[in-house]
Design brief:
Length: 252
């Protein structure tokens, strides 16, 4: 059974791999046996160190993911560096906070471009590569609790993550017959840069923690089991699922 959760010989592309959840998932994939290509707008040196410490190859690309050309370039870089592509982790994302009544067009467009548009075109580029290889493949999109809920003060983020959940289901419908599994992970409140303002606000942090049955903020390592599972043969019959890893937030 344990062999079903191994990724030996697989090659993965992880966006937003320079820190936080992306770095944690890149590390988990490497520890399960995959070689990793990481894409981010920040330095990827620490992620490289972690992947190589696990005995796997790492290829770095400093790339802004806005625009369809960036999606194609990211997949082409991964294939050129690693020789093939088997896994895409669509993790890169940003957030902007303001009351909906005051929210501006730039903050809307920037978030939608990174969190939703790039997810689709990266998935498209990866799927084309999987089909050309005749290998099938695994795509894991990073959704959110706000794929299920409305939230407050993050209108473009909520719209984008609701879109990620819907897009995951659509792509699963179209590509399952091609041997491509498209699923998503919906993280809860995680201790990352995106939640730093919330954790710095003592009252808001206490309010959030009071609703989480697990009683703590999540860590990047908490996604390791879910992402390895969704990228492994153990999940071959899963298509279009959105798995919450949230400390129980959605059950409260």
């Amino acid at each position: 059974m344990s062999a079903n959760f191994r990724l030996d010989g697989r090659c993965a592309l992880v966006t937003g791999a320079g820190r936080g959840l992306g770095q944690g998932m890149a590390t988990a994939l490497a520890e399960a046996g995959a070689d990793v290509a990481g894409v981010d707008v920040i330095d990827l040196g620490e992620t490289r160190r972690r992947v190589e410490a696990a005995g796997r190859r790492f290829a770095a690309l400093k790339q802004d993911l806005r625009g369809t050309a960036a999606a194609r370039a990211s997949v082409e870089h991964a294939v050129a560096a690693l020789g093939r592509l088997d896994i895409l982790i669509n993790n890169a994302g940003i957030i902007r906070r303001a009351d909906a009544i005051d929210f501006g067009e730039t903050d809307w467009d920037d978030v939608i471009d990174i969190n939703l548009k790039s997810v689709f075109f990266l998935a498209q580029a990866a799927a084309r590569q999987f089909i050309a290889q005749r290998s099938g493949g695994k795509i894991v999109n990073i959704a959110s609790m706000l794929s299920f809920q409305g939230g407050i003060r993050v209108p473009s983020y909520t719209a984008s993550k609701s879109g990620v959940a819907g897009l995951t289901r659509l792509l699963a419908n179209e590509w399952a017959a091609k041997g491509i599994n498209v699923n998503a992970i919906a993280p809860g409140y995680m201790a990352t840069d995106n939640t730093a303002p919330l954790r710095a606000d003592a009252a808001r942090s206490a309010e959030i923690l009071g609703r989480i049955p697990a009683g703590r903020w999540g860590e990047p390592e908490d996604l390791a089991g879910a992402v390895v599972f969704l990228c492994s043969p153990a999940s071959d019959y899963m298509h279009g699922s959105v798995i919450a890893v949230d400390g129980g937030w959605l059950t409260r």
